[in-house]
Amino acid sequence: MKYDFAVIGAGPAGYIAAKKAASAGKKVLLVEKKKLGGVCLNEGCVPSKTLLQAAKTYRHAKHGSIFGVEVEGIRFDFPKAHQHKNNVMNKMRDGIAGLMKKYKVDVVEGEAKLLPNFQIEIEGETHEATDILLCTGSSPAIPPIPGVDLEHVVDSTGILDRESLPNHLVVVGGGVIGCEFACMYASVGVQVTVLEAMPEICPNLDPEVSASLREGLAKKGVNFNLGAKVQSISADKVSYADDSGSNELEADLVLVATGRRPNTKNLGLEELGLDIDDRGGVRVDNRGATNIPGLWAAGDVPGQAWLAHAASRMAEVVVNNITGRKDHMRYDSMPAVVYTSPEVAVVGLTKEEAEARGIKVKVGRIPMAINARYIAENPDETGFCKVILEADTRKLLGVHMVGGACSEMIFGATAMLETELREEEIEEIVFPHPTTSEIIKDVFMAVR
Ligand code: NAI
After folding, report:
1. Run of H or E including 82
2. Fewest CB atoms within 10 A around its CB: which of 205, 277, 311, 349?
C-alpha cells in the first residue's frame, strides 16, 4: 500500500503524529510491534505515576492525624494498586485505538524495517510512504556490572511487574527514575537506599533543587549514598565503592536506573546511511529532519530530551513541517517534572546555564512555606520557588520549583517563557487566591 506518511512506533510521538497528519488529510500508516502508547503508557509515565499516587494516598492516610483524620488498621494492598494501574493503562490504550479509528489511521501490528526508496517491510509485507517518521523510543541502558542479570535485579520496566514489596530496595542511580521509585517504595514502608555515582542526585537539575529533593526524600525515609559507584551485585548483596573504600549492602530487590539508550537496532538504519550521533541517537535538526530528506525522527530516538511531552511536541513539529507550516523545537521552554513527594517542576535555564551562555542574571527565591494553601495542604513538606531573569531586560529565563502541586503549575511558567514575558507583564497577571500557583507571582518580589 502507498501512504503519504508512515509512522514507526506508537508512543506519545507516534500516535500524536499519526493523528495530526491524518487530520490534515494525509493517508497515514502507524506501525507498532508491542502495544499502543509506547513506553510512556505501558512501561513508564502512566503506570509509574499511578503507583506513585497509590503510595502517596497511603502515606496521606497514615499521616492524616494532622488534618484530624484518624484511620485504624490502615494497610497497603500492592496487588490492588497494580489493578488500578492496569485499569488506567487499558483505558488509555483503548482511547488511543479509538482516536486512530476516528482519524482513519491504518494501524499495523508488527516489527517494521526500513528498506531503500521509502519502502517499509512489516512481517513480510511491503508498504511505501512519501514521508517516514521514526519514533521507536528508548530502552533502559544497563551498565556492564557483574550480577545485573540476576533474577532480583530489575530495570524500570521490570519493577512495574513486581506485585510484592521487598524488605530492602537498593536503587542504582539517583536520577529521575531512581528517585521516583525510591519515593514510591519508601512511602509504603520499604527500606530504600539509593546509590548515586555523582556527588548529588539528579545532577542535571538546578543544584539547589537537587539538594532540596534529596532532603525531602530523606525525610520520607530514603537513604542516599552519594559518590557511590556500584561494582557488583550478588544474590543478596550490592557492592559499591565510595570515598570510604569498598562497602556492601544487603538487598532483596535491586533497581538499575542508570539512564536510557535510543532504539535504533534492527531497523535497517545503517544500510540506509542514516546519521547516528556518538550517543547512539538519530541526528536531527530542530525540525526533526534527519540527513535523509523525507525521513524524520522524534521522541527518545534522537536522544535529546527523554520526555513524553517533548516527544509529542517533536511529533507536532515534524507534521507541521510536512504539511506546510514552518515550526521548530524550542528546548529552552521545555518543562520537566519529577513526580516524587515533594515534586520537582522546572522550565528554562538555571542560573548556572544562563551564566555559561554569558547572560547576566537576577535571581529570586522564596520558600513554599510563605504560601497559605501550600502549608495547609503540605504541612510536612518544605520546598521553594526560584526564578531566573535576564538582568537588563527583566525577561523570564527559568522557573525551578520543589514542593507539592508543582507539576500542575509549571505549564503557567512554560507559557510565560514561550511567550517571552518580562517581569512587568507577569506582574499584571491575576493568580487566583488561595492557590499554590501564587508562589510564581510572589517570587518576583524576591528578585535581586
Ligand atoms: P538519569 O540519567 O536521569 O540518571 C541516571 C543516574 O545514574 C545518574 O545520576 C548517574 O550518575 C547514575 N549512575 C550511572 N551509573 C551508575 C553506577 N554504576 N552507580 C551509581 N550510579 C550510577 O537516568 P534515569 O533515571 O534512568 O532516567 C532516564 C531518562 O528518562 C532521564 O533522562 C529522565 O529524564 C527520563 N525520565 C523522565 C521522567 C519524568 O519526566 N518524570 C520519569 C522517568 C524517566
Report:
1. helix 78-102
2. 277
Measured in Å, residue 257 CA sits from the centre of ligand 1 at: 6
Locate 327 and state its grid cell. 515550526
CB-CB contact of 28 with 161 (8 Å): no
Which pLDDT tens digit goes with each residue over 163-206?
Answer: 999 999 999 999 999 999 999 999 999 999 999 999 999 999 99
Q: Does position 379 have pLDDT exceeding 90, yes or no?
A: no
Pick the CATH number of 2-139+261-330 from 3.40.50.1440, 3.50.50.60, 3.10.20.90, 3.40.50.800: 3.50.50.60
In the chain, where are the structural domains located?
2-139+261-330, 153-258, 342-446
pLDDT tens-digit series, residues 12-71: 999 999 999 999 999 999 999 999 999 999 999 999 999 999 999 999 999 999 999 998
Instruction: Choose one of 51, 154, 155, 177 to mutate for the ligand 1 pocket test, by most ligand atoms within 8 angstroms of C-beta.
Output: 177
Task: Tell me how far apart the alpha carbons of residues 417 and 28 are, in angstroms, rounded to a whole number.
Answer: 34
Inter-residue contact 263 to 303 (CB < 8 Å): no
| Lookup: cell for 86 | 492496569
Confidence of residue 145 (pLDDT cuts 50, 70, 90): very high
Q: Which residues line ligand 1 (CB under 6 A)?
A: 143, 172-178, 180, 195-198, 203, 229-230, 257-260, 306-307, 336-339
The owner of cell 541517537 is 281
Contact 15, 25 (CB under 8 A): no
Closest Cα to atom 23 of ligand 1: 259
Element (H, E) at 224: strand 222-226
Q: Do the domains at 2-139+261-330 and 153-258 have one common CATH topology?
A: yes
Select from 137, 140, 139, 181 the least CA-distant residue to 162. Answer: 181
**Which fold does the domain 153-258 belong to in CATH?**
FAD/NAD(P)-binding domain (3.50.50)
Q: Report the predicted TM-score, pTM, of the whole model to 2 decimal places.
A: 0.97
Neighbours of 241 (CB within 10 A): 14
CATH topology of domain 342-446: Enolase-like; domain 1 (3.30.390)
